[in-house]
User: Which sequence fits this backbone?
């Protein structure tokens, strides 16, 4: 970003890490089709499989990895090809889950954005996200997984916001997206505990995902994963500073009492609509958002804030911190926030 | 290595790589934003996506729209998934993506045979109730150019939609004039892997395959990559500018190869053929042995996706070759960056190795 612009929308997408960029550029040189039997193709295949092994190691995942174009596709695969039908999803899931679970029960969340684990006990496929993309609230997936498994069900966890930042939950199906953790846009994966729980559909990826593999994207994805998440410790301090400033200025912190990832927060500025806030922040070259990027431009109230019963949901914006965010940037943002609130 | 497998994938054009770099930047620049974000870096990314969309649309017929996908496989699945009733007719030499998607749709399907030249009869009869006819523009294994415009018009007369898999032809020969759906991918056009597009004629209903955040007008969810879009767009613009020059170059390479491989017989029509592909057979040839003896020449024995199955090529079987003859066939795929020296050297060594085998 240029010196006077400030990007605090890392939950929408975050810059490509230099190591991931280098890996991608190296990947451009390994351009043969990994399915080709000749030497160049086999070299690409070897690089792909080595990257897959590194993904498993970086995520401490001992199941299978199906590479996809991103989390939306991974969720679609999980929700349409799981041997169990989807029976329940949390009310605060991303649209990519909600659109494939029209007939499934919505698991209500409390005012803190959390679902009650025992309510998730179902004998079918249950989808609960790891971290909410609008509020940063972390679901108690350990207890939820135990409840689902105890009932004979399978758990799908949308980990788009958590992968590369927190340990993966004990889920059977997990969707991840590289561009949320410093990898490129256009690559993600569905992690599958065991191929027996998913119906194949033909094509590449052992018959689970047709299409020539995006090797440069895969190499960049794994490189980004391997960069670690130590930065979240300093993000926690930045976030504390941010929230202290917002509260001092008369603002509210959404789900303040819930466990939340330090990278994402949702804040209400009483009396100023989120749309008006966005326009004024944007005019000052500050990039923040109202809810998810996908829904930006719509005037609809966030289904997440609505499900939580947040007062003044139409006055809430999302601020999301990245690896490079500094204390000076938080202070810059707070000054702008106070100016708009005044 | 001499790379003669440009139907499997093509190298990334330097121009496409350059176009991508601006959108692969780190925190020091704004070139990374989510194109669906409303803020100004998001709008800049969205603008780059739209420039690319126009560059790609310029290779396709007027009167339609370009929906970005992860590649042609997804585009084909989306087009076929948009057919809710009726039957699907497809040529016997379609890519697996078409055939598998048609079979998975659960709708009645009809295979349209091809003649010994690998061409679908433009007067082929479609089964009553056919809702979609799918015929590829250029075959990926034997390079034959199908009479897609005639077939599209016949499909319309029958009340059906027409899907053209133009993966191998787009940017290389003129686009089909008539179609409802056209599926393309960047990496066969010297663009990056991981992006393709579905072109949909205005007024034709298309259903989403990947639902979610509602990007691409609700027709294809998932964050779009400005880098992949820009790379695809630059590759498309380059292909458009170089279409004639590339075609002449490939024609020259094809003639050169034929002149050196005089004992070999071409599979598929000699006339309705795209010159970047040469599928040749030689009686008694042991292709796995040939490939293992020529490890630094990348060529293939069919499509990349079908490799490793051991089964004879479905395409070569469809043009009437028996299993033994089909197994004695190789595919040479020339590209923009193939040189005359490379092709000549590869052909001489292939011929010498074949003779040494006694083929």
Assistant:
């Amino acid at each position: 970003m240029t010196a006077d612009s400030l990007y605090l929308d890392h939950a929408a997408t975050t810059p490509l890490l230099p190591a991931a960029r280098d890996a991608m550029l190296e990947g451009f040189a390994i351009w043969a089709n990994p399915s080709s039997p000749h030497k160049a193709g086999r070299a690409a295949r070897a690089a792909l499989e080595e990257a897959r092994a590194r993904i498993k190691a970086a995520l401490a995942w001992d199941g299978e990895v199906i590479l996809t174009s991103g989390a939306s596709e991974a969720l679609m695969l999980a929700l349409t090809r799981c041997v169990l039908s989807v029976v329940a999803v949390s009310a605060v899931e991303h649209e990519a889950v909600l659109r494939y679970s029209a007939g499934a029960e919505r698991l209500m969340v409390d005012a803190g954005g959390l679902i009650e684990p025992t309510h998730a006990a179902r004998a079918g496929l249950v989808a609960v996200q790891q971290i909410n993309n609008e509020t940063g609230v972390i679901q108690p997936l350990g207890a939820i997984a135990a409840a689902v498994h105890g009932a004979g069900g399978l758990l799908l966890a949308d980990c788009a916001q958590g992968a590369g930042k927190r340990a993966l939950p004990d889920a059977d199906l997990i969707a991840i997206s590289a561009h949320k953790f410093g990898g490129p846009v256009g690559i993600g994966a569905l992690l599958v505990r065991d191929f027996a729980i998913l119906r194949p559909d033909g094509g590449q990826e052992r018959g689970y995902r047709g299409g020539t593999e995006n090797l440069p994207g895969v190499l960049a994805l794994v490189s980004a994963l391997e960069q670690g998440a130590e930065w979240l410790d300093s993000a926690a301090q930045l976030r504390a500073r941010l929230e202290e400033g917002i509260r001092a200025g008369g603002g509210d912190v959404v789900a303040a009492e819930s466990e939340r990832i330090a990278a994402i927060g949702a804040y209400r500025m009483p009396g100023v609509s989120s749309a008006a806030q966005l326009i004024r922040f944007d005019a000052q070259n500050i990039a923040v958002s109202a809810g998810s990027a996908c829904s930006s431009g719509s005037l609809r109230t966030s289904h997440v804030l609505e499900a939580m019963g947040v007062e003044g949901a139409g006055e809430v914006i999302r601020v999301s911190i990245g690896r490079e965010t500094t204390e000076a940037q938080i202070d810059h943002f707070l000054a702008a926030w106070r100016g708009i609130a005044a | 290595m001499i790379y003669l497998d440009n139907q499997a994938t093509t190298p990334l054009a330097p121009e496409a790589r350059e176009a991508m770099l601006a959108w692969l930047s780190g925190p020091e620049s704004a070139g990374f934003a989510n194109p669906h974000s409303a803020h100004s870096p998001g709008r800049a990314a969205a603008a780059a996506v739209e420039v690319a969309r126009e560059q790609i649309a310029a290779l396709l017929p007027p009167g339609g729209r370009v929906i970005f996908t992860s590649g042609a496989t997804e585009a084909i699945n989306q087009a076929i998934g948009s057919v809710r009733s009726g039957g699907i007719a497809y040529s016997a030499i379609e890519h697996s993506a078409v055939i598998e998607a048609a079979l998975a749709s659960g709708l009645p399907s009809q295979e349209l045979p091809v003649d010994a030249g690998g061409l679908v009869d433009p007067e082929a009869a479609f089964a009553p109730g056919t809702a979609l006819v799918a015929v590829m523009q250029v075959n990926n294994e034997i390079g034959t150019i199908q009479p897609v415009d005639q077939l599209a018009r016949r499909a319309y007369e029958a009340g059906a939609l027409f899907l053209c898999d133009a993966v191998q032809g787009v940017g290389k020969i003129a686009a089909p004039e008539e179609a409802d759906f056209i599926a393309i991918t960047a990496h066969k056009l010297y663009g990056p892997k991981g992006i393709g597009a579905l072109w949909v004629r205005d007024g034709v209903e298309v259903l989403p395959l990947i639902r979610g955040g509602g990007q691409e007008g609700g027709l294809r969810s998932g964050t779009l990559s400005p880098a992949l879009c820009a790379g695809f767009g630059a590759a498309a613009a380059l292909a458009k500018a170089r279409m004639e020059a590339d075609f002449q170059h490939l024609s020259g390479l094809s003639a050169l190869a034929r002149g050196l491989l005089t004992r070999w017989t071409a599979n598929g029509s000699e006339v309705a053929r795209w010159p970047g592909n040469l599928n040749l057979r030689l009686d008694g040839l042991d292709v796995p042995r040939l490939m293992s003896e020529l490890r630094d020449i990348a060529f293939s024995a069919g499509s990349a996706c079908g490799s490793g199955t051991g089964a004879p090529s479905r395409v070569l079987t469809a043009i009437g070759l028996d299993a033994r003859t089909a197994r004695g066939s190789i595919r040479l795929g020339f590209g923009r960056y193939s040189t005359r020296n490379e092709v000549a050297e590869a052909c001489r060594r292939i011929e010498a190795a074949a003779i040494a085998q006694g083929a």
